[in-house]
Amino acid sequence: MTAGSEEIVVSHLTKHYKQLRAVDDLSFTVHSGRVTGFLGPNGAGKTTTLRMLLGLVTPSGGTATFGGVRYNDLDQPIRHVGAVLEASSAHKGRTGLNHLRMICTAAGLPWQAADEALAKVGLTPAAKRKFKGYSLGMKQRLGIAAALLGNPRVLILDEPANGLDPEGIRWMRDLLKALAAEGRTVLVSSHLLGEMQQLADDVVIIAAGRLVRQGPVGEVLGSMAGMTQVRVRTPQVEALTAALSARNATVTPLPDGALLVTGLDAAAVGHTAFTSSVELHELAGERADLEQVFLQLTAGKAGIR
Ligand SMILES: Nc1ncnc2c1ncn2[C@@H]1O[C@H](COP(=O)(O)OP(=O)(O)OP(=O)(O)O)[C@@H](O)[C@H]1O
Q1: Is 256 in a helix, a strand, or coil?
Q2: What domain range includes position 240?
Q3: C-alpha–C-alpha distance, residues 58 and 76, integer Å
Q4: Are 204 and 36 spatial neighbours (Cβ–Cβ below 8 Å)?
């Protein structure tokens, strides 16, 4: 991999587990010098995708490459791609510094890399403390330090903010932004839209293993914010739901018995009801709340599996 070509290209990536399409013909690109948020609800296929990127799960089809090269074909992958898949674990009686030095030795890196990585994540003061005394936030930092040992151009993190307190989340956000500002490619998964709004330059949104949206965060969220939703009430819920679904709208039943429709405007919902001979008791278009659109775009797809 040469400098400047650290893009991650995911092309028609697919993973089937028996009948379940955990990842289904997924294609997207992750650019260098930017933080890309990989967003989707629980079970959307984020972890499976990241594990395929890292050669830990064999795809049923498609490819994922770093600068054109598959992970397993990279020469000294630790120098190209750093990954934090779950909160780090280390021998509980070992110090953070020794944990990192062991990884250095195994990977043929100088011990100095351990000190540098600890400094980068602000763990130098705890370098000689035992892992068993580390808080969750410190364990997360140590995991990131381990990923940084080979000074990789690409960083991949799976839900790194999970379990962190607000200060820890802010710290993580600043670190990832700084790493991207150094020109690195940073891909970070999350199921929380709000978290990505504050962190990501680009977003890739998936649901039920399939791509929902990708692009610069402002553009994607802007298009979502511009979406309207329609509140509708009918005594013929099933007939209307079927007619709207046939027009690719997403229909969510509300606790008060009304239906919330996304993907069609009020006129189109009214027209669909009319042509399907469905009686309406209420029909109102409203501007959608961003979080609600995200939930609907993604939850609507989850039912397909
Ligand atoms: N080894 C496996 N065998 C069978 N099914 C699996 C396996 N790994 C994952 N799955 C299924 O694939 C789907 C996608 O899971 P995955 O963990 O990739 O989603 P996710 O988006 O990372 O979700 P979460 O945020 O909950 O981790 C889920 O339905 C999961 O149960």
Answers
A1: coil
A2: 228-287
A3: 20
A4: yes
CA distance 59 to 70: 12
Query: Is the residue at 2 inside a domain?
Result: no
Q: What is the pTM of this model?
A: 0.81
- Same domain assignment for residues 266 and 140: no
Tell me the CA–centroid distance for residue 204 and ligand 1, in Å. Answer: 17
Which CATH number do you get for residue 249?
3.30.70.100
Q: Interface pTM (ipTM) of the complex?
A: 0.95
Q: What is the pLDDT along the chain (305 residues), one digit of tens a residue?
A: 444 458 999 999 999 999 899 999 999 999 999 999 999 988 899 999 999 999 999 999 999 999 999 999 999 899 999 999 976 677 788 899 999 999 999 999 999 999 999 999 999 998 999 988 888 888 889 999 999 999 999 999 999 888 788 888 999 999 999 999 999 999 999 988 888 888 999 999 999 999 999 999 888 877 776 677 899 999 999 999 999 999 988 898 988 999 989 888 899 999 999 999 999 999 998 776 667 677 767 775 544 44
Mutation pick for ligand 1 pocket among 15, 48, 53 (CB with most ligand atoms within 8 Å): 48
Residues within 6 Å of ligand 1 by CB: 17, 20, 22, 40, 42-48, 191
- Residue type at 99? H
